Amino acid sequence: MSLLPSWPEPIVRVQYLSKSGIRKIPHRFVKPPSDRPCNIMDITTTSINIPLIDLENLNSPNDSVRQETIDHISHVCREWGFFQVANHGISHELMEKTRAVWHEFFQLPLEEKQKFANLPMTYEGYGSRIGVEVGAKLDWCDYFFLHYLPQVLKDENKWPCLPVSCRKVISEYGEKMVKLSRRLIKVLSIGLGLNEDYVHKSFGGDGESSACLRVNFYPKCPQPDLTLGLSPHSDPGGITILLPDTDISGLQIRRGNNWFTVNPIPNAFIVNIGDQIQVLSNAIYKSVEHRVIANSNKERLSLAFFYNPGGRALIKPADELVTKDCPALYSPMTFNEYRSFIRTKGPSGKSQIESHKSPR
After folding, report:
1. Which residue from 347, 356, 331 is spatially nearest to 138, judged by alpha carbons?
2. Which terminal residue of the chain, N or C, has fewer Cβ atoms less than 10 Å from its own Cβ?
């Protein structure tokens, strides 16, 4: 990937702006009228309950129960691209501990967080923007990005050292999330009629598949009707497993021409299909455009865990899913090539996956 070694403009920390007491957000954060959230004060009327999957059913001694669960997941990947999972094998205690250490990190003095300031070459560390285009509109969000896999990229020295339990908790959380991700992609493979390890092998297997975490911190915003916490996009990778904020909703998904606020279920994760799964499945499974709205009354925190192909993995539609009647919709492309788009342009709806379609 050819990315700038440094940010093209001075970085402004959104949390600092929020705490400064401003009543109007800077122009750089004001979205064009067509991109602003509608009815920001009445999101309950446009909320939605996305499908809930009980993963415990995958352990059932009853073959029909297991198959019914696999079929259900396959169906929601085709029709929704988003679902929630309960009984996922990760303790509620670990979920809460992980949220807590990140809340503590974002409340540290700015100079402590600045020790981990990131650069666009890798995005690893403490950041406040995605994309390197000069003059681009910015989102009302700070974040921390880190790698779990492959092992060659994992560097705990780049993880927060405060609070003191942070690195230990982050490591434990990552191990559990990798196991959950691999369990889910196995189900996705079976649901497509492929060998259960097809997606795993396509992503690069144990040695090359990548996993990373982006912790999003959304400070209070004085004008939430003019901006977004995160602009519309589909995730460029494989699957995303989100640990949402427990107190207030903010994630919205697009269905048709409308945006709906997702109602998170306590102790459940929100899972969504990324572009690489859409490509690999030849658009049988579909990634879905989503965004995050800002809030004037409460700050929010969410943890997005990404399980992706390795950077050198060449992703293309599975041969078994390509026929004369259903030709390959996408040209082969490495994940490094693909994700360079969002790292350069920033969130841009589903424009990237649409532009990736093979010429007919």
Report:
1. 347
2. C
0.85 exceeded by pTM: yes
Position 318, amino acid: A
Average pLDDT score over residue span 265-287: 96
Give the model's confidence band at 256: pLDDT under 50 very low, under 70 low, under 90 confident, else very high: confident
What's the pLDDT score for residue 41?
A: 46
pLDDT(257) > 90: no
